[in-house]
Amino acid sequence: MTKVMFKNGKIFTSDTNQKYANAMIIDNGIIEWIGGDQDEIVDFQGEIIDLQNRRVIPGIIDAHMHPLLLANSSKQIACTPPLVYSIGDMIKELAKMIDEEWIEGWGYDEGKLEEGRTPNRHDLDQVSIDKPIVITRTCGHIISVNSKALAIAGINKHTSDPAGGKIDRDMNGEPTGVLRESARLLVLDKMPQLSMEENATRLAELTKSLYAHGITAITDLMASNKPMDYVDIYTLAREKGLSHNVVLYYMWHDLKVNPILNEENTNREQPIHIGGVKLFADGSVSGRTAWINPSFLGDEDNYGIATTSEDELLEAMEYAKQHGVQLVVHAMGEQAIDLIVNTFYGMESWIQDGPSIRIEHAAMPTAQAIERAAEMGIAFVPQPIFLYAEIESYLKNLGIERTKTTYPINKMLEAGIPVAFSSDAPATAWADPVNPFIGIKSAVTRVAYDGTDTGQSEKIDVETAIELYTRGAQQITRIPNIGQLKSGYQADFIILNNDILEISPVEIEHINVEETYVKGISVYKK
């Protein structure tokens, strides 16, 4: 590949030493030079591309998402607006899959449904009593199933709640079909599994849409080695056309049974590698399963569900430490975040070039948790799209004043906590859950899609939001030499149709990616 000079651009680099540039020279996929004035370059030999004064930013790194779930959810019934506004709509849509062995739906949020409640077995039995039906709530922590699915899983009046889970029951003690946290697995483990080939093909099909959103590096925060190994699935997907850098985070309950980490699969120079060990400390705010304090609004006995223990955290940490990978813990509520921070407080880091411990979501950290996390270099990985898209559930579950204090990005940054932005796609109630510009808009306006103020004191500026989706995400995912446009780094960048640094923040959601480059090569053009 010959050298290429990109000139006449408005380049935002995410490099703190040189935030802006107009031109860059790329040699063999790596930025050789970037600067303020292309006129400095004399006798350049190579291709010249005119950026036509358009805004350029580094490629987006989504530090917390679920590509395999995203790929598979695209084959299910979308139980979200603009298709579904009520349980009645949902029943009609699900009926379209009546010929399938299992009928599956994704993405409902009871806060957006006319009935204002979670669909139950009786609702879903109207679609079919002969075919099992499973629909997953937007958060991914709760499912609703019909009577047939309950029967296949052997769930009845006498079934006990599993550890870290809850089977909802009616006044007579009968299961309602709503299964929370680990109780979901009673049904999910009975479902037919896609083949390696099917999973890999679906992942490869995501490639273009990720590039169309400007996403050049991805993560999978629910990787497993059963029934098949995610490294193998993603490797096959790569052969089929998935060309992103991928960091996988493996579920601790799987690694405990089958400890597969080794020097090869954790090697960060590999385009697909394992970056961490993942646990859940609680559930979701919107699903009322986050482990919080004080309790949920209007439900004074409900403090959510704790899904791990100090002993389990320490056991997982030892394994992560042994293999030089991160310990990654999902925690939304105050009590869940406190458990993690207090368990590891005062312990030494084991990773030198990034955070040893990541707290995913970190929705409701206490002042002490923020202070201690900063002191220890624990990273927080929040998703600004949650407040934007799921505002109804937050208001109902927490109330307006408490909602405004969730995801306190400003406080995190001021304390010195490493922060990365991400989407958690598809686990949010938005038709286009992976879109980073929705997240950026939410972070810089702190206003939800319906106009609700979500806490003006925690809004950040646009440059910072971009940095948290690029340099910040790189520093936390630890993928080498990406996330900034600077000499020696990979030339991953996107050209926008509008100047994100100059337009009104409320317009940011309408920004489109005109072109995406990876290693200096165009991989997507609108």
Largest sheet: 7 strands, parallel
Helix content: 25-40%
Poorly predicted runs are: none
What sort of overall outline do the alpha carbons produce when their principal axes are compared?
globular
Compute the average pLDDT. 96
Tags for this model:
23 strands, Urease, subunit C, domain 1, alpha/beta, seven-stranded parallel beta sheet, about 525 residues, globular, about 30% helix, six-stranded mixed beta sheet, 18 helices
Please render the helix and strand layout as text.
Elements: E1 4-7, E2 10-12, E3 20-21, E4 23-27, E5 30-35, E6 47-50, E7 55-58, E8 60-61, H1 67-73, E9 77-78, H2 87-94, E10 103-108, H3 121-125, E11 133-137, E12 142-145, H4 147-153, E13 165-169, E14 175-181, H5 185-188, H6 196-212, E15 215-223, H7 230-239, E16 245-251, H8 252-257, E17 272-280, H9 310-323, E18 326-331, H10 334-344, E19 357-361, H11 367-376, E20 379-381, H12 385-389, H13 391-398, H14 400-404, H15 409-415, H16 436-445, H17 462-469, H18 471-477, E21 493-496, E22 513-518, E23 521-525
Parallel strand pairs: 1-6, 2-7, 8-15, 9-10, 10-11, 15-16, 16-17, 17-18, 18-19, 19-20
Antiparallel strand pairs: 1-4, 2-3, 4-5, 7-21, 11-12, 12-14, 13-14, 21-22, 22-23
Helix pairs in contact: 1-6, 6-7, 10-11, 16-17, 17-18
